[in-house]
């Protein structure tokens, strides 16, 4: 074969190989290109891609209409492996027939709220099947920043005894966190874990020591946590009858656990503004010191609230201290839901250690009236007669003739009964005396009415005690200290109406004319006022400014008022409280405040024409309380008429 033939043959061979390879290359190129396209139906419409097995995102935004959690926020599962229809949102949807599922037995669930809330109650509900997938051990944490975590509750070896069972857990958390983490450490043996419902709530209410509804600091807890949002337990102790606590039960309890033992001697319930069928009707108040053995203190059956926002009050014959009190409602007006506007449980705590630090004593071994009454003139028959004769007026010692006794009309009780508003100090410098009168009206108004007799002839007879504590009577006319124009400048009430306070001030002048040889009341201390009417002046407690903490001062004032003591005090520094100012060298009456955020109230005996009536609500700060001095005086015979006071002072309208 010559070379030309060989070349031709090689060319033919290459052509054959080339013809063979080209289709093969084309085929190889076409195969991978076809992989980028789906198969088509006969109608030429492409099929949608198959649904992936897992579709749950890690996080779901929850609106404020969801009641499982206390606010709007975001709930997050650690893993994104929840099957379709069982994502993390199902755990807070309020439906026990749905469930959250994850293919892990160790994982966490995060809740980030839109606001910081002190969660102290949570529930877990088992799913509808597969008990081996139930959670068994877990820990609940709280965090302010989502980084540093604090353990709130821990549970081990929990067993759900049936399907869709709700397990409830209360925890003593008082810190408001924005982030909460439920960390599941194990389940009941399954490869997957499932939970039907998770509920996080602020159920138990931490009560501060200044709350006026309860006898001391502590925690208030309901039996059930399924109350509607916006009607939580706190609305029952906010001192506002326009709000209310609602619970979808007719049989339930509310428990107060105190930070210390307290003696409850009075309680009240206020009906809500609507739906009388939801009023409580029958209930029992219990006391306990171990939360296990309970003693029935008061039982009420078939109570009917005749009006909306009506307060029903109940006195207790209880002398025992308890750490727990429980109000158990057993029946309402016929509804499946019960609502209560206010619950007040009043009493007092042990303040003996604070009393031991009292800085003053008026004790006398001679007279129950106290040491201020020692060595006073004897009460002879002649003295008794002079005091009992109304026409005998104290001698005016001012020689310039500016003062005289002038008759003025008297309305003993302008508001129907004695009130602090009846006391307005005017031209006499007896702030301690009239502040004591106002305190007497606040704590023991019935006592005032019992010691004043209207003789019907413009004279009045007052039951009093002589310096040795023996009963006497002092009668006065309707002539009161006045200026040369006949205008009186004695204590009076609203609209310059002379009243019971004016009469007591006149009786005090006449008393001092005999036993002090001077009718002038300027600078007279409280220790020389209250005993004249109560017969008890040898038991007084007092503390100077800065001697008590805010909490100690609040406990002393409230415990004193609850036990019927007269409370007065003053300020050693002039400062503003709101738009009112404090006055130094001046005496005030101590009272409960109607402001739920105030420690207590102090009323200036100057009163005022405004609706505040001279009342200062003492704030819980480091500015005002350290400037206050406080005095408590034993009520003596006044305690026979009433047990004490538990409500804030609300000035009358005039």
UniProtKB/TrEMBL annotation:
<feature type="active site">
    <location>
        <position position="586"/>
    </location>
</feature>
<feature type="active site">
    <location>
        <position position="604"/>
    </location>
</feature>
<protein>
    <submittedName>
        <fullName>C2 family cysteine protease</fullName>
    </submittedName>
</protein>
<dbReference type="GO" id="GO:0004198">
    <property type="term" value="F:calcium-dependent cysteine-type endopeptidase activity"/>
</dbReference>
<dbReference type="Pfam" id="PF00648">
    <property type="entry name" value="Peptidase_C2"/>
</dbReference>
<feature type="domain" description="Calpain catalytic">
    <location>
        <begin position="386"/>
        <end position="646"/>
    </location>
</feature>
<keyword id="KW-0645">Protease</keyword>
<keyword id="KW-0788">Thiol protease</keyword>
<dbReference type="GO" id="GO:0006508">
    <property type="term" value="P:proteolysis"/>
</dbReference>
<dbReference type="InterPro" id="IPR038765">
    <property type="entry name" value="Papain-like_cys_pep_sf"/>
</dbReference>
<keyword id="KW-0378">Hydrolase</keyword>
<dbReference type="InterPro" id="IPR008979">
    <property type="entry name" value="Galactose-bd-like_sf"/>
</dbReference>
<dbReference type="InterPro" id="IPR001300">
    <property type="entry name" value="Peptidase_C2_calpain_cat"/>
</dbReference>
<feature type="active site">
    <location>
        <position position="431"/>
    </location>
</feature>
